[in-house]
Design a protein that fits this description.
The chain is built from eight helices and twelve strands. It is of the alpha+beta class. Strands 1, 2, 3, 4, 5, 6 and 7 form a seven-stranded antiparallel sheet that branches. Strands 9-8-12-11-10 form a five-stranded antiparallel sheet, sandwiched between helices. The C terminus is likely disordered.
Length: about 375
């Protein structure tokens, strides 16, 4: 019974762990698909705007800025958008032309030309250079803090092509706070959580706010976490990875997967203690059932022993004792009878001796006495 119970618990534990892996894989896949879909949607804004500008026979900034405002109003994840021309591409005597609209800290959509100057020089920015260098329709920047708006953001960029020549770049920016709040709202079970790491391992949307945009998972003092960070940023394909290790101060399951072509990675942490909480309850329940079953078995065996073995032996012993006592009583009775017989015989002899004295006691009778008499 104990072996069977142990095998059952072992099998159940393996089944539970497999289920945990499957559930984490499924949940991470759902989150990945949702995030990838949102990033693709926002990237499409940049791509579509670049296509429309390239198709214009005459650039219409007012119309384009009106479209940008509609983008910002329609999507809470978008914080701003703009279009940026190569030197003299918009106008022959104009080196910088980059109108930008964004949502300020009060939620108002405002217009700025602060990027269109030599001081800012948007040509040197990664989001601009990467869009010109890539063959992809959309390229994403790592998270950064914008020096003009002072807001952290992630930028999608698309190159503008006109008559076969690249003439500029369009951008749509994701509100880092809005994105972080969404990631932090993800719950895995009761205590599980999610965060993002960038292409270089920078923490994004971690529940420990002090880590965000300031620390890298690849620089963590915990060697297990550091090793995990290296594995995460090297993982480029769409396969969801699930493992278990001592991470972030506890025994945790960890799931990670890239988010589209953004260079970002989704990381999901789920405590093993919570994962096995139900298993522990089942183990305790099974141990309780096993103990009760053993007690019942012992009681049944004791009853059977008493009924089938002990009681017959006791009855046999009592019967033998009774027979022995009967025999002793019969023997005593016989001894008593014999003793009484002996006593009666002795008395009889005594009486007989009085009636018939022994010859030694009879006075001899002589003939002369008879004659004399």
């Amino acid at each position: 019974m104990g072996i069977q119970a142990g095998l059952s618990l072992y099998s159940f534990k393996n089944s539970m762990e497999t289920k945990v892996y499957e559930n984490l894989n499924s949940q991470a896949g759902q989150i990945q698909n949702k995030l990838s879909g949102r990033f693709d949607q926002i990237g499409k804004y940049s791509e579509l705007m670049a296509y429309n500008i390239g198709a214009m026979s005459r650039y219409d900034s007012d119309m384009l800025l009106g479209v940008i405002e509609k983008y910002i109003e329609s999507d809470t994840l978008i914080i701003g958008a703009g279009f940026w021309f190569e030197p003299n591409a918009y106008q022959s005597n104009l080196k910088y032309y980059g109108p930008y609209k964004y949502k300020d800290d009060k939620g108002r959509i405002v217009m700025t030309w602060e990027y269109s100057n030599a001081e800012y020089d948007y040509f040197k920015e990664d989001w601009y250079k990467n869009a010109l260098a890539t063959k992809e329709k959309v390229v994403w920047s790592p998270p950064y803090e914008d020096i003009v708006t002072k807001m952290p953001m992630i930028t999608s960029s698309s190159s503008i092509t006109k008559a076969g020549k690249v003439v500029g770049v369009t951008t749509t920016d994701i509100d880092f706070k809005e994105f972080s709040d969404y990631i932090k709202s993800i719950k895995i079970g009761q205590e599980g959580y999610a965060f993002i790491v960038s292409e270089d391992g920078t923490y994004i949307a971690h529940k420990q706010q002090e880590k965000n945009l300031k620390e890298k998972i690849t620089d963590d003092k915990d060697m297990n976490v550091k090793k995990l960070g290296t594995e995460i940023i090297k993982h480029k394909d769409k396969e969801i990875k699930v493992s278990r290790d001592q991470l972030f101060g506890a025994d945790n399951f960890v799931t990670y997967v890239p988010i589209g072509n953004t260079g970002l990675h989704l990381v999901v942490i789920y405590p093993a203690e919570e994962a096995y909480r139900d298993l522990n309850k089942v183990i305790i329940l099974n141990i309780g059932i096993f103990v009760v079953a053993v007690i019942i078995l012992v009681l049944v065996l004791a009853w059977l022993f008493n009924w089938k073995i002990s009681r017959p032996i006791e009855e046999l012993t009592l019967g033998a004792d009774f027979q022995l006592r009967q025999q002793q009583l019969n023997l005593k009775v016989r001894f008593t009878i014999i003793e009484n017989d002996v006593n009666r015989s002795s008395k009889r002899r005594v009486n007989d001796s009085k009636l018939f004295p022994s010859p030694g006691n009879v006075e001899p009778i002589f003939f002369d006495n008879i004659i004399r008499g």
